[in-house]
Automatic annotation (TrEMBL):
This is AAA family ATPase. Residues 81-219 form the ATPase dynein-related AAA domain. One of its GO terms (molecular function) is ATP binding. It comes from Prauserella cavernicola. Coiled coil: none annotated. InterPro entries: ATPase_dyneun-rel_AAA (IPR011704), CbbQ/NirQ/NorQ/GpvN (IPR050764), P-loop_NTPase (IPR027417).
């Protein structure tokens, strides 16, 4: 029986420790205070390339270089960074790798939800110690943001627009004054050099909890687009599916690229509302059909092929994943999916296997 890794998903700084160490040891460019790498080396780590000694560095993010450079340059100033885009544009992925490369710690994370409390951004209290000792620094429970301030590191705030507005505004003092008052102790924590915040938000959530004008002014916004073309998106899915397959100990299927291309094409056509050749207009479903969902469909397909087939990913293995990704609304989306199957998939002779597999599920 194959050994199962004890950690399902290592943090970026652990998974790519060797590359980070090579870059840190060979990078002679100027570094901002408390940065592990220079901005150039951070970009090389994120986008891939070669370390100064010739060691190859694998790409972590496939996208426009200039956008990544703008994000890194922002973090080298006193401005916070907001990564904005539709779901599945690798905002969280890029945020984690930027934090890993800059401060060597991507774990100072606030996960935004409708229930996120102000203590998640400021601080809380260990009530047992508070009752026993009274207010003191020992009784204070630091938030990820407070810990990053004390260490001169990067704090990450995911899904910022899902956090209630009054809690969001707890960031204003942190971002403008670079300090966090602790009135109970008549004290404050001042941020060390290198401290900054990377927040993410998606376009589909605009209006859930709008950012106040005061908070918006304290962020530089970098909009992450969906992949520009089919080939770019296929490569992103292939790369991430390979990484996930290795982590989950799924056997590699070198022939799966053809199936990846079909899944990506289906997603792009439904997203764009028109077929790839521009000849047929089609309806779009309610979901985002993001690159992340294409990765999920293919990973599930590889698992099905590995455990219940011969290891080769075929139409039957991805059909259920496609149906689940497209049909979020059981009424409206089902009609969209049925129309797409009849008007587009059925007419493509090489896709006859995919048509049959998907029709069985509709």
């Amino acid at each position: 029986m194959t050994d199962v890794p004890s950690i399902l998903r290592a943090h970026a700084e652990e998974q790519h420790a060797e590359e980070l160490a090579v870059l840190a040891g060979t990078d002679e460019r100027p570094r901002p205070p408390h940065w592990r790498l220079s901005p150039w080396a951070v970009a090389t780590y994120v986008l891939g390339g070669e370390a100064p000694d010739g060691t190859p560095i694998s790409p972590k993010y496939l996208g426009a270089r200039r956008l990544v450079e703008v994000a890194i340059a922002t973090l080298a100033t006193d401005r916070a960074l907001l990564l904005l885009g539709v779901p599945g544009t690798a905002k969280t992925w890029l945020s984690e790798h930027l934090a890993a490369a800059i401060s060597g710690d991507s774990t100072q994370l606030v996960q935004g939800t409708s229930g996120t409390a102000e203590e998640s951004i400021r601080y809380g209290w260990n009530y047992a110690r508070l009752l026993a000792e009274g207010p003191s620094r020992n009784a204070l429970v630091a938030s990820p943001v407070l810990r990053a301030m004390e260490r001169g590191g990067i704090a990450r705030v995911e899904e910022l627009t899902r956090i209630p507005s009054d809690v969001q505004d707890a960031l204003i003092t942190v971002l403008s004054e670079k300090s966090l008052p602790i009135p109970e102790l008549d004290d404050e924590v001042q941020a060390r050099g290198g401290f900054n915040v990377i927040a993410t938000a998606n376009d589909r959530d605009r209006g859930v909890n709008e950012l106040s004008a005061a908070l918006k002014r304290r962020f530089n916004v970098v909009v992450l687009p969906l992949p520009a073309d089919v080939e770019s998106e296929v490569e992103i899915v292939r790369l991430r599916v390979g990484q996930l397959g290795e982590t989950l100990r799924l056997p590699a299927d070198e022939e799966s690229v053809a199936e990846i291309r079909r899944v990506v094409t289906v997603f792009r056509e439904l997203r764009d509302g028109v077929t790839a050749d521009g000849r047929t207009k089609i309806k779009s479903p309610s979901g985002t059909l993001s690159t992340a969902e294409a990765i999920s469909v293919m990973t599930s397909g590889i698992a099905l092929a590995a455990h219940f087939g011969d290891g080769v990913v075929r139409a039957d293995d991805v059909a259920a994943g496609l149906h689940g990704a497209v049909v979020k609304d059981p009424v409206a989306d089902r009609l969209v999916w049925q129309e797409y199957l009849e008007a587009v998939v059925r007419e493509r002779t090489p896709w006859s296997d995919l048509y049959r597999a998907c029709r069985e599920l509709v």
